[in-house]
Amino acid sequence: MGKVAIIGVGQSSFVRSYPGSIRELAFDGFKESMQDAQITTENIDASIICSAPEYDKQRSPAGVFAEYLGLNPHPTFYVESLCSSSSMGLRLAYSLIKSGLHDVIAVIGFQKMSEISSSESQERMGRGADIQWESPFGTMMPAYYAMYARAHMEKYGTTLDDLALIRVKAATYGQLNEKAVYRKPVTFEMFTDPESRLAGPVASPLRVGDCCANADGSSCVIVASEEKAKDLCKKPVWILGLGAATTSVNLPGRDLFTGLTAAQQAADQAYKMAGISPKDIDVAEVHDCFTIAEMMAYENLGFAKPGEGKDLIKSKETYKEGSIPVNVDGGLLSKGHPIGATGGSQIRTIVLQLRDEAGDIQVKNPEIGLVHNIGGVGLYGNVSILGR
Amino acid sequence: MGKKKEVDDRFKKFGTVSFTSITKTNDFIDFLEGGKVMGTRCKDCGLVFFPPRADCYQCLASNVEWFEVSGKGKLLTYSELKFAPVGFQDDVPYCIALLDYGKYKIFGRIAKDVPENEIEVGMEMKTVVNKTSNEQLNYVFQKV
Ligand SMILES: [Zn+2]
Q1: Which residues lie across from B56 on neighbouring strands?
Q2: Domain check: are B64 and B108 in the same one?
Q3: Helix, strand, coil fractions of chain A, as percent rounded to 5
Q4: Does A220 touch chain B (CB under 8 A)?
């Protein structure tokens, strides 16, 4: 069997409140990916639609999108693993193409979170954990990640100042990303200024500035067989390695609270499949839904030893000019986090980097890139390694 | 016409807002009413479950017995929420936490009367039954 490539990427602008319906939102990301790939719907023989349920009212969005995007009568289906849904979509597209069932697949991620209020959204996300035994205590994502932050700080001496540095880096690049929700500058001092909104508490020890914002958005990744890729595309980006893992949905079923085991395991699988090690990664997109999540990602992906993630950000090694640039598109912290669209947006950034088309945020001559995309509180871990 | 079918929905009493009403572990609620926090143990292989489960994935059997959570656990981590999901706004601020009992861990809330500045990771705490402000049942962690 031949290789599998990404031949087109696109995303909508990520915005607080999209002035349209979900099918129209999906159209934006799809259109950009089709124009990027310079293909027509004739070339696509299946689609995979990715999101987390219960933000909008549509049941079975796949059928609706297939019609709106002109993808009938080809098969389509829905895939969900919370915030890593579109990375899971990429994994499924890879296997459908490898199997020979399909040749060119559109992986479309979307989320329109603005249809419900912020506290309703917290409740929805909280219900992505254990609804029988944990949600009745009033859980939400920031508080779960805050528990990991607390454990990391206790064990390794990581500080809130270290976490603030991650947000400062995110904003450095978020200002350059015209598709990001949050484009204002963020300084280290803003975290100690009681007047600053970013310093406000959310779930101790995490502050507003440690958390990404909800957003509406869509993304699309066009995946193709080697034969089709060579036929249709001048600069295919190859899928070199894929990893996926899970862990206990409830915290009592876990043993590690200073890192995400599903991310570690997914990374190990992806490195092994690609036949590379962490030092071979030239540019990475990690799932920074919270500052602590990026810190743990450094360690879980092997960019730093456990507990030494803080040294990486303090020495600016994860900036664009550093030894391992991470989230130079601003990350979720700047772009916002439209759950189902996020993975596709991360993949888009790495594909553009590997094609040397990333503009202001272009890392120098990258050969291999990595996408780390997490669903829930480390419940689902997906790592994808791409190369040119 | 026949009588209305009895539905055993005791679990809707669990927590400020319960999202589950029917479960094979409904007896957990009766135990709470009796002042006990209980987990389950597989009678075939001895696996201990908290939160309690009706089924053992190791034996593929449903032969479990209840045991009482007793003694002290160590506080692994916690977070105080200053902002709550819908349905919990009246409780703010409150602390969610994880206690390690060695053979099992318990996720829950820290008792309201424990001020945040007295909470330390590693401290010993016990799990006690609690009535919520809206007359529901849960359990909380108290200092020992
Ligand atoms: Zn058993």
Answers
A1: B61
A2: no
A3: 40, 20, 40
A4: no
Residues B37 and B82 in one domain: no
Q: Is A133 on the interface with B (CB under 8 A)?
A: yes
Residues of chain B with confidence (pLDDT) below 50: none
CA distance A212 to A177: 15
Q: Which residue of B has its CA nearest to A255?
A: B105
> Which residue ranges in chain A fall short of pLDDT 50?
none
Q: List CB contacts (< 8 A) between A126 and chain B.
A: 85
Catalytic residue of the set A83, A211, A220, A233: A83
Report CA-CA distances (Å) from A312 to A191, A207, A317.
20, 21, 5
The beta strand positions in B29-120, using DSSP E, are 38-42, 48-49, 64-68, 73-81, 94-100, 105-110
- The encoded tokens of residue A239 equal 């899928």
Partner-chain contact A203 B20, CB within 8 Å: no
Residue B129: give the domain boundaries.
Answer: 73-143
Q: How far is the CA of B104 from the centre of ligand 1 (A)?
A: 15
The predicted pLDDT at position B5 comes to 77
pLDDT tens readout for residues A118-141: 888 888 888 889 999 999 999 999
Length of chain B in terms of residues written:
144
A127–chain B Cβ distance below 8 A for any pair: yes
Q: Provide, as residue numbers in chain A, all residues whose Cβ is less than 8 Å from the Cβ of B107.
A: 133-134, 137, 250-252
Is position A337 annotated as part of the catalytic site?
A: yes
Does the predicted model carry a pTM greater than 0.95? yes
Same-domain status, B39 and B101: no
Q: What is the Å distance from ligand 1's center to B61 Cα?
A: 6
pLDDT confidence of residue A142? 95
| Cα of B84 to nearest chain A Cα, Å | 7
B116 in a domain, yes or no? yes
For residue A113, the domain's CATH number is 3.40.47.10
Per-residue pLDDT of B98-124, as tens digits, reads 999 999 999 999 999 999 899 999 999
Number of domains in chain A: 1
Query: Residue A118's pLDDT is what?
Result: 83
Judge whether A48 lies within some domain. yes
List helix spans (H) across chain B: 27-33
**Which A-chain residues 230-269 have CB contacts (< 8 A) with chain B?**
250-252, 257
E runs forming strands in A226-323:
237-246, 283-285
CA distance B3 to B71: 45
Domain span including residue A87: 4-117+214-232
Residue A203: which of B14, B82, B91 has the nearest Cβ? B82
Is A76 part of any domain?
yes
- Residue B116: closest CA among chain A residues belongs to which residue? A204
A289 noted as active-site residue = no
The one-letter amino acid at B1:
M
How far from B59 is each of A247, A254, A323, B44, B49, CA to CA, in Å?
Answer: 20, 21, 49, 7, 13
Answer yes or no: is A189 within a domain: no
Partner A, chain B 82-121, Cβ-Cβ below 8 Å: 82-89, 91, 94, 96-98, 104-109, 116, 121
